[in-house]
Amino acid sequence: MGDNEMTTNRRTPNILVTGTPGTGKTTTASLLAEKLGMKHLCVGDIIKEHNCTEGRDESLETNILDEDKLLDLMEPMMQEAEEEGVGCVVDFHVCDIFPERWFDLVLVLRARTEVLYDRLTTRGYAEHKRSENMESEIMQVILDEARESYDTNIVHEAPSNTLEEMESNVERLKQW
């Protein structure tokens, strides 16, 4: 079987929810998992729980991700869900590290700059980190990475400025 071929017992798809930090990925992914009976894999939590880091970049105020360790941990999680017949909803701000074969849909959440600014400020982001993330959103970096990393037919962009928009996104995905 080729790398992009996969037989499946799943009744629900595997969905990657991605976007700039502060766009509502975890909230949307949690809603999706709850409403569709899916397994939610919050990549940030997995990284923290299993120490999937290779040090710290103080200039960016962030940990350096050990991608190999993370993917080695996630592969059996994805497989277990597959064997249970359920899909996974995975949320993370980086989308280009995952195997393309893992996902049936990539949802890129977008937020207006004023909404994103307020969310990042509430989280206590330093000015330079907030500015970097704001620029990333304005330049649609995550959307472009998703389109470069996955079949463009499975990449969808959705607004995520309010809880109502997040719930609407979930309702649309229920129809899918």
Give keywords:
176 residues, 5-stranded parallel beta sheet, 7 helices, disordered N terminus, two-stranded antiparallel ribbon, alpha/beta
Provide structural commentary.
By secondary structure, the protein is an alpha/beta fold. Helices cover 47% and strands 19% of the residues. It contains seven helices and seven strands. It has helices at 25-36, 43-50, 67-84, 113-122, 127-138, 141-149, 163-175, and strands spanning 15-19, 39-42, 53-57, 62-65, 88-91, 105-110, 155-159. The strands form two sheets. Strands 2-5-1-6-7 form a five-stranded parallel beta sheet, with helices on both faces. A two-stranded antiparallel ribbon has the order 3-4. Helix 4 (113-122) packs antiparallel against helix 5. Residues 1-6 have low confidence and may be disordered.
Any chance you could write out the topology, listing elements then pairs?
Layout: E1 15-19, H1 25-36, E2 39-42, H2 43-50, E3 53-57, E4 62-65, H3 67-84, E5 88-91, E6 105-110, H4 113-122, H5 127-138, H6 141-149, E7 155-159, H7 163-175
Parallel strand pairs: 1-5, 1-6, 2-5, 6-7
Antiparallel strand pairs: 3-4
Low-confidence stretches are 1-6
Portion in beta strands: 15-25%
* N/C terminus separation: 27 Å
**Element order: H for helix, E for strand:** EHEHEEHEEHHHEH
Structural class: alpha/beta
Oligomer state equals: single chain
Number of helices: 7
